[in-house]
Design brief:
single chain, 106 residues, mainly alpha, 78% helix, rod-shaped, DUF4351 domain-containing protein, DUF4351
Length: 106
Amino acid sequence: MSDLDSAPVQQAWNDLQRISADEEERYKALARERALSDAVTERNFALREGEHKGQAAMLRRQLTKRFGPLDESTQARLQHATQEQLEHWSDRILDAPTLSAVFDPH
């Protein structure tokens, strides 16, 4: 309990009360919190998007290496695929005897 009476704790408490009492400081603190939250959200979105594009690029390389050059419709299919589709096709490429078998829904 004696720690609560120490000078640094008292100074922090006084600063907190001053900041909380000042409407402009509260607004600035809220704006900083929102900006930080927005930055984290944007970073997470960019990471997911980057992972998705990377997975599509890797699958495109594997398909090309295994089955030869890909036609435009197959490339477009990869570009517009969902994450789940890319994962499914990435598993299917291991056993599929043909390119069309990779994309076969069964």
